[in-house]
């Protein structure tokens, strides 16, 4: 299978969840944008809008790890429902506060009541991040490995659509009736989302064969930060990938902090907003391209090559003060960004055990997102106090390159962009030549592709996480999952028909990459719990006693959904 089939089977479930997540994301981000606009209109304070952005970025970084633990600990549908319900309750309380507050109650930027409202609204927005972390794990569960890169491309398209709709909807709703209309619309959409989710049946993960697996104290809590860090460290090259993304975001923070002043130096506010609305369509097109053509067999290489082009474009467009060059440079950036994001998700979905993917995605989000606010908060003052004087008419930079590069505030910002782009190109080329890149590529190539098989209706199921991968010893054994030894054990667990294959057959298509790949196989009967194939990581753990803290036996868990009668 080389193309998505969103009309049948588990991929149809994924399509429903993707649309639901898209709609809820539009609502949550509309609230975020709208509260920023509304606070500025009410108070006239630029500092207040910056604080709101800081609240969102810091909260996103701090909640990634615990949210990942929640995603792995509980059923995916329950997590998505709780996320929407929490946002709805918070927005309802904020709407009541708005309706009861006297006229002009929120015009003082130092009023505690204003900030209580802002913080509450941002909590409702941040609760939606549970869906953001859960969605890539659902790609692993519901989409065959051969087309997961294309499914990740659709996730990128959904991001572009949400950005485009949010940019328009937030301004229109605030203009109509301030925050009241925004919150009413949000409540309606969230209630519809909850009703829709109640009718979507997400397959559960089958219970592993054999005796009950011990559960550590950390696992019962769902967070297990130490085990997650050890797992990340145990996958060859994965820490380097996360560090690379973190440094990328660190450099990207320059554009977050300075792009608006740079663009507004060349055009009006209305034209700048319209330009970004058009450019956001590039993310949609890029995501659709990924869904159509995929990422190839080496997504790690694709990720780095795309980053090299992205940084080259951001280094070149500021060389001259040109609206055309700015538009072309940012169009390239927006078009290729879904390729980079889909490549990173595809790699993590393959090399990380399913039961830990929520925590690893949350960990990566926390580490990567922590860099952007740091640059955004530090680089703007640095540019104003150091780079602008350097590029002023009497500055040393103006004397050296001002004759062709230009002088003044806008050209000072452009110089920062050029330096950041050049550093990004050097970083990416160094990563391409590095040993961690080769190790991660090898780990991806040797990792099994069919590690998750949704349970048949009525079969015994485990919680919506991989029991085997949830102990800290499994983290230490993640390299073993990529070894031929573990592959042999997986083949043996899967049955004689797969023994000797170099890859586990795909959970949905029944195809693999071994000697029998491409051979037609008859439909199999729904497996019993004892006949469910185990992943290499599962075999490595369930066949060996797990030492560690005090443990309790896990009782049989209920499936995420009730079987049909």
UniProtKB/TrEMBL annotation:
Transmembrane intervals: 12-40, 46-70, 82-101, 113-142, 154-176, 182-198, 231-257, 269-291, 303-336, 412-433
GO (cellular component) term, any one: plasma membrane
Record has Repeat as a keyword: no
Major subcellular location class: membrane
Topology of this chain in the membrane: Multi-pass membrane protein
SUPFAM superfamilies documented for this protein: MFS general substrate transporter (SSF103473)
GO MF entries: transmembrane transporter activity
Annotated localization: Cell membrane
PANTHER family assigned: INTEGRAL MEMBRANE EFFLUX PROTEIN-RELATED, MAJOR FACILITATOR SUPERFAMILY ASSOCIATED DOMAIN-CONTAINING PROTEIN
Protein name: DHA3 family multidrug efflux protein-like MFS transporter
């Amino acid at each position: 299978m080389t193309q998505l089939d969103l009309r049948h089977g588990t991929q149809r479930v994924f399509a429903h969840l993707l649309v639901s997540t898209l709609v809820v994301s539009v609502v949550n981000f509309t609230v975020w944008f709208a509260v920023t606009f509304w606070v500025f209109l009410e108070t006239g304070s630029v500092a207040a809008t910056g604080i709101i952005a800081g609240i969102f970025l810091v909260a996103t970084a701090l909640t990634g790890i615990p949210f990942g633990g929640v995603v792995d600990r509980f059923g995916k549908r329950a997590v998505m429902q709780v996320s929407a319900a929490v946002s709805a309750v918070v927005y309802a309380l904020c709407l009541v506060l708005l309706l009861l507050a006297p006229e002009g109650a929120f015009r003082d930027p130092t009023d505690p009541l204003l900030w209580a409202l802002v913080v509450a609204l941002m909590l409702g927005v941040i609760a939606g991040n549970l869906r953001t972390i859960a969605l890539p794990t659902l790609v692993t569960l519901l989409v065959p490995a051969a087309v997961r890169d294309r499914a990740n491309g659709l996730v990128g398209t959904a991001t572009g659509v949400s950005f485009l709709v949010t940019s328009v909807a937030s301004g229109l709703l605030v203009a109509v009736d301030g925050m009241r209309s925004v919150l009413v619309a949000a409540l309606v959409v969230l209630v519809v989302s909850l009703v829709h989710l109640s009718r979507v049946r997400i397959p559960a993960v089958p219970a592993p064969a054999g005796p009950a697996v011990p559960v550590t104290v950390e696992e019962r809590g769902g967070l297990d930060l130490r085990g997650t860090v050890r797992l990340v460290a145990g996958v060859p090259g994965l820490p380097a990938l996360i560090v690379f993304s973190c440094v990328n975001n660190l450099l990207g923070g320059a554009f977050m902090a300075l792009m608006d002043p740079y663009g507004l130096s060349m055009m009006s506010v209305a034209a700048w907003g319209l330009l970004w609305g058009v450019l956001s369509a590039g993310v949609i097109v890029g995501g659709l391209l990924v869904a159509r053509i995929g990422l190839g067999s080496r997504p790690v290489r694709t990720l780095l090559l795309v980053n090299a082009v992205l940084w080259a474009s951001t280094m070149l467009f500021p060389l001259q003060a040109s609206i055309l060059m700015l538009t072309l440079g940012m169009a390239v950036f927006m078009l290729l960004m879904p390729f980079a994001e889909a490549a990173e998700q595809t790699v993590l979905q393959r090399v990380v055990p399913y039961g830990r993917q929520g925590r690893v995605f949350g960990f990566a989000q926390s580490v990567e997102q922590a860099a952007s606010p740091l640059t955004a908060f530090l680089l703007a003052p640095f540019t104003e106090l150091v780079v602008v004087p350097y590029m002023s008419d009497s500055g040393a930079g103006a004397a050296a390159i001002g004759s062709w590069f230009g002088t003044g505030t806008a050209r000072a910002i452009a110089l920062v962009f050029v330096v950041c782009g050049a550093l990004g190109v050097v970083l990416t080329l160094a990563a391409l030549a590095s040993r961690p890149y080769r190790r991660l590529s090898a780990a991806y190539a040797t990792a099994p592709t069919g590690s998750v098989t949704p349970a048949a209706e009525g079969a015994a199921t485990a919680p919506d996480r991989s029991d085997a991968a949830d102990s800290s010893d499994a983290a230490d054994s993640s390299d073993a999952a990529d070894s031929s030894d573990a592959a042999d054990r997986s083949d043996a667990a899967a049955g004689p028909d797969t023994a000797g294959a170099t890859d586990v057959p795909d959970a949905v298509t029944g195809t693999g990459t071994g000697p029998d790949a491409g051979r037609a196989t008859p439909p199999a009967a729904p497996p019993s719990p004892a006949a469910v194939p185990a992943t290499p990581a599962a075999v490595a753990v369930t066949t060996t006693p797990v030492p560690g803290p005090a443990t309790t036996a896990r009782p049989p868990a209920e499936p995420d959904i009730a079987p049909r009668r």
